[in-house]
Design a protein that fits this description.
The chain is an alpha+beta fold. The chain folds into three domains: 6-21 and 91-237, Reverse transcriptase/Diguanylate cyclase domain (Alpha-Beta Plaits, 2-Layer Sandwich); 24-87, MutS, DNA mismatch repair protein, domain I; 254-399, DNA polymerase, Y-family, little finger domain (Dna Ligase, domain 1, 2-Layer Sandwich), CATH 3.30.1490.100. It has helices at 6-10, 24-32, 56-60, 69-78, 88-105, 128-143, 155-168, 197-205, 211-215, 219-225, 228-237, 267-287, 326-340, 373-389; strands at 16-21, 41-44, 51-54, 82-85, 109-113, 116-120, 147-152, 173-175, 254-264, 290-301, 312-323, 347-355, 358-359. Strands 5-6-1-7-8 form a five-stranded mixed β-sheet. Strands 9, 10, 11, 12 and 13 form a five-stranded antiparallel β-sheet that branches. It is globular, with a radius of gyration of 25 Å. The structure holds magnesium ion.
């Protein structure tokens, strides 16, 4: 057998639950605007480019995922679709509330994405279905968000169980077990976790169309034709757990970059933007208790604008000693940008990447860097003020007071939970 997962080797059965928020972005908008209940909603990507999330009602209208908004603007008007720019501050905050509730309810957790988490329910004293129903109720009453929970012996089956919970149950909870496993007959292979469109086509060529057919396939043969990943997938479908919970590793690099809401030509505006991204990246760095040993700054024009003269360049600078000091990182990032900047181009995007991150416990002093416990205290104070009173309550002047380069988000809803001045008003 090709599986090494400890509990499978011991012959102990595991129980996984996948908790997934239903239409997460659209649901976040509904929590604060109940009038949207039952109405079609779409959420757009940065700069209002493409559709990145849809409510069920919008899906029914045939608006595809990833569709360029301008092509569907008419349809949206016609059917009174509620259109929103991405409000990542709101979605991120709602996500952390859901994850906090899950972590509180059960400690064995893997946060898989902004709106999904796996729980390993081994040793759960309650019946896992009842536990999940109560958990779902708790998330609904504390955050207003609807979630679906799929329960099964493996992560791959829990994903399928979640799909069934979401689409075929009233309760929002589905336990896929030996008594109802034949439901795999109704699941096309492309719905299986890790099977993309191309892999699905190759499986279809082998006359494997459903999850059940894949489950009953010859593991050795498919391992040869595909890989060990495929072999594990088949075992997982058979209820043999090959994939355990993965712990969250601190990131090895941090990127902060965005395209501008309009094309930019002046150095001073670019400096504001890079300072802002440097401040965001530095804050992320401190929140995971890391220091960076260097940075990369890049600058580019818009390659989709064929009529423009193109330019792109980047520069990498090592720090004399690892740091997480925002002022210092902004200072170096601006120097880099000044080196990259050429007059006469219309710039579309700039960004910063912090490199070679190390834990902040191994801090090494260097006389070239601003050093003192006072600077550390300053950073901690800035972070805690911004956590308490909302992002950018205090910020560096270098980031600009009234930036013109900010991404375009014409349809953004208020950031209800992270900005005091955008809090929900009751009349
Ligand atoms: Mg979801």
């Amino acid at each position: 057998m090709g599986c090494s997962h400890a509990s499978a080797a011991r012959g102990v059965m595991s129980i996984f639950a996948l908790v997934d928020c239903n239409n997460f972005y659209a649901s976040c908008e509904r929590v604060f605007n109940p009038r949207l209940e039952g109405k079609p909603i779409v959420v757009l990507s940065n700069n209002d480019g493409c559709v990145i999330a849809r409510s069920n009602e919008a899906k029914k209208l045939g608006i595809p995922m990833g569709a360029p908004f301008f092509q569907w603007e008419k349809v949206c008007k016609q059917h009174k679709v509620n259109v929103f720019s991405s409000n990542y501050e709101l979605y991120g905050d709602m996500s952390s509330r859901v994850m906090a509730l899950l972590t509180e309810a059960w400690p064995d957790i893997e946060i898989y994405s902004i709106d999904e988490a796996f729980l390993l329910l081994d040793g759960c004293p309650e019946n896992c279905v009842e536990f999940s129903l109560a958990l779902r109720q708790k998330i609904k009453s504390c955050t207003g968000l609807p979630v679906s929970i799929g329960i099964a012996k493996t992560k791959t089956l829990a994903k399928i169980a979640n799909f069934i919970a979401k689409n075929q149950t009233e309760s929002g909870v589905f336990h896929l077990n030996d008594s109802n496993i034949s439901i795999l007959k109704t699941i096309p292979v492309e719905k299986i976790w890790g099977v993309g469109r191309r892999l699905a086509a190759r499986l279809n060529d082998l006359k494997i169309f459903t999850a059940e057919e894949l489950k009953n396939s010859d593991t050795k043969k498919l391992r040869k034709q595909f890989s060990v990943v495929m072999e594990k997938m088949i075992y997982e479908l058979r209820g043999v757990s090959c994939l355990g919970l993965e712990s969250v590793q601190p990131r090895k690099q941090i990127i902060s970059s965005r395209s501008f809401g309009k094309l930019i030509t002046s150095l001073s505006e670019l400096e504001e933007a890079i300072s802002h991204y440097a401040a965001i990246a530095s804050e992320k760095l401190r929140s995971q208790h890391s220091l960076a040993s260097g940075l990369v700054v890049f600058l580019q024009t818009n390659f989709f604008r064929k009529q423009d003269v193109q330019y792109q360049n980047s520069v990498c600078v090592p720090f004399p000693a690892a740091t997480a000091d925002t002022a210092y990182i902004i200072h170096i990032a601006k120097k880099c940008l000044q080196r990259l900047y050429r007059k006469g181009f219309r710039y579309h995007k700039t960004g910063i990447m912090l490199l070679n991150l190390i834990p902040d416990t191994v801090k090494q002093n260097d006389w070239l860097l601003p050093q003192s416990s006072a600077r550390d205290t300053l950073m901690k104070t800035v972070d805690s003020i911004n956590q308490e009173y909302g992002r950018n309550t205090v910020f560096y002047c270098a980031e600009g007071i009234n930036p013109t380069w900010k991404i375009k988000s014409v349809f953004r809803s208020p950031r209800y939970t992270t900005r005091w001045n955008e809090i929900l008003k009751v009349r």
